[in-house]
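Example record

The entry below shows one chain as it appears in the dataset: sequence first, then structure tokens.
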Amino acid sequence: MNAFTLFAQANPDVDGAARLFGGAIAFVVFLWIIGIALTIFWLLILVDALANEPTTEQKILWFLVIFCLHFIGALIYIVVRKRDRVSASPPPG
């Protein structure tokens, strides 16, 4: 990570265009890391929906919602289904 932050650091010997280019590279790397993390999250939620939904119709429905809406669909699934599973589970003991 230090190599990426070196691009964005100001150096008095370097002109403004080089500093701008270094900052742009650091920003693009940051966006790639966020994008990869969101895609991994999306895949995990997609697999969870396909593995844990009780009926085939619900699996197809949630697959289409998550697949078509990507990250927003994954958030909808978490808010709607995970909360339902927690409230429907029997109390411990």
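Notes for this example: The chain has a mean pLDDT of 82. The chain has one domain: 2-88.
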